[in-house]
Design brief:
The protein is of the alpha/beta class. It has two domains: about 100 residues, no CATH class; about 130 residues. The chain has a four-stranded mixed sheet. It has a four-stranded mixed sheet with strand order 6-9-7-8. Strands 1-3 form a two-stranded parallel ribbon. About 40% of the residues are buried.
C-alpha cells in the first residue's frame, strides 16, 4: 500500500494553480502564432496579437492571464493501492486553492449559495470527480475555467442512431449561437454517450486533456480534425470579431449508452487554456 500525505499534495496543487493562472503553455502560444499567420482579417489579427501580448505581459509581471481566475475542476485518478493520509482529496484541493488564491490576490469568484450572493472568500470549493484504477498511482488533472466559457456549455439528447454529422451539426448550431460570448479561439470538448450528466462529464474530461493530444481511435481522431475545420468555417473568429480561427482543437470522449438515448455534451475553454496534470 502506497501512502501519500495531503501535506505532500497541497503545495504541488498550489504551485500548479499559480503557474496555470500566470503562464500560458508554450504550445498554446505556438497555436496562437499559427492562427495569426493564417488570419486575413485585420480585426482578427489585431485580437490575436493582443492575446499574445497579454500572455507575455502576464508572465513577465506575474499578473493573471485573465481577471476571471475561474473555478477549479479536478479529475482525480487514484489507484486502489493508494492511501491518502491526513485528510481527503477534496480537503487537499480546497486548501491548495485557498492558499494560491489568497496569497496571489487572484479573484475569488465562487458563491457559497447560488441564490444568496455570498462569496466563499477563497475560491473554494473545487469541483471534483474521482475515478479508481488498479495500481498505486495518483493523477490529478486540473482545469481552471472562467464563467464566460462555462456559460456556453450545452447538452443535447439526440435520437439514437444519429450519424456523426448530426452530432457535429448540434455542436455547430450551439457554437454559431454562443461561441463569441466565450472569448475564442476555443478548445472544445465533446462527450458522447453515458447519460445526460455523464455526457457533460465526458466533455469536461476531453477538455482536460493536454494540448496537442488527439483521440487514440482513428475514427474519433478524424472527427476531431474535421469538426475543428467546420467550426472554423463559421467565421466567428478571435474574440468574435470575425475570422478564420474560432477553434484551436476539438477533443471527443465517448462511453456506452442506453439504446433509447444518445446524449451529447459540449464544454469549452476560452483562449486562456489553463490545464495541468500532476502525478504521484
Amino acid at each position: 500500500m502506497k501512502e501519500i500525505s495531503i501535506e505532500e499534495i497541497i503545495p504541488e496543487i498550489e504551485n500548479a494553480l499559480v503557474d496555470m493562472n500566470l503562464c500560458s503553455p508554450e504550445l498554446l502560444r505556438c497555436q496562437m502564432l499559427d492562427a495569426l499567420m493564417v488570419e486575413k482579417s485585420e480585426a482578427a489579427r489585431e485580437m490575436l496579437s493582443e492575446i499574445l501580448e497579454n500572455y507575455i505581459v502576464a508572465e513577465e509581471h506575474k499578473l493573471p492571464l485573465c481577471q476571471d481566475t475561474g473555478m477549479i475542476m479536478a479529475e482525480v485518478e487514484i489507484g486502489i493501492e493508494v492511501r491518502i493520509i491526513g485528510g481527503t482529496i477534496q480537503e487537499a484541493l480546497d486548501e491548495a486553492i485557498r492558499r494560491a488564491y489568497q496569497k496571489n490576490y487572484f479573484r475569488k469568484s465562487i458563491l457559497a449559495d447560488p441564490f444568496t450572493g455570498k462569496n466563499t472568500g477563497d475560491n473554494t470549493p473545487a469541483v471534483v470527480f474521482i475515478r479508481q484504477f488498479k495500481g498505486d498511482g495518483l493523477n490529478i488533472h486540473l482545469l481552471v475555467k472562467g464563467g464566460g466559457c462555462d456559460n456556453i456549455s450545452a447538452l443535447g439528447m439526440l435520437t439514437p442512431g444519429c450519424s456523426p454529422d448530426q452530432i457535429k451539426n448540434f455542436i455547430l448550431r450551439e457554437l454559431d449561437k454562443n461561441a463569441s460570448r466565450a472569448c475564442p479561439p476555443l478548445v472544445v470538448g465533446v462527450g458522447i454517450g453515458g447519460n445526460a450528466a455523464y455526457a457533460l462529464y465526458l466533455a469536461s474530461l476531453a477538455l482536460a486533456r493536454p494540448l496537442g493530444t488527439s483521440h487514440p481511435d482513428s475514427r474519433y481522431r478524424q472527427w476531431e480534425e474535421q469538426w475543428r475545420e467546420d467550426i472554423n468555417r463559421l467565421g466567428i473568429g478571435p474574440q468574435g470579431v470575425g475570422g478564420l480561427v474560432t477553434c484551436l482543437e476539438v477533443r471527443i470522449e465517448s462511453h456506452p449508452c442506453h439504446i433509447a438515448s444518445l446524449p451529447v455534451g459540449m464544454v469549452c475553454s476560452c483562449h486562456v487554456f489553463r490545464q495541468k496534470k500532476l502525478v504521484w
